[in-house]
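Re: that chain you flagged

S.,

Sorry for the slow reply, it's been a week of failed gels. I finally had a moment to sit down with the sequence you sent. For the record, here it is as I used it:
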Amino acid sequence: MFYQNVRGYHWNVKGEHFFSLHTKFEELYTELQLQIDEIAERILTLAGTPLHAYSDFTKYSSIKEDKNVFDGRECVEGLVSGLQELIEEQRSVIEAAGEAGDEGTVDLITGYVQAQEKLIWMYNAFLGVKK
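Prediction finished late last night. Pasting the structure tokens below so you have them in one place:
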């Protein structure tokens, strides 16, 4: 769901920061696409079946659709919110994988969290948020 939101931000962003945000959103959804593939392959490695239907995404995602957002600042605010929610979910995965002794999944997801925390810092700097 987050991936689709970022694609929407990329396609629909308008305003004075269009050129920089349009490019940044493309970089992010490209990275997310690679991560989604890595996660699916990890699930297959562990003899599972990755979800792939949009109906499953809407059923199980804690991240909600962010439709028809055009203002650059609102896009970035949605992006930060989505990243925060994604990190929360990923920390749950890390905990469950750790309890199961699945170091491969812990390592994979921990790397994502570290990179996404940095993105939150950077996008908050764009927004002028002091944390």
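What I noticed first: The chain has a mean pLDDT of 96.

Talk soon,
D.
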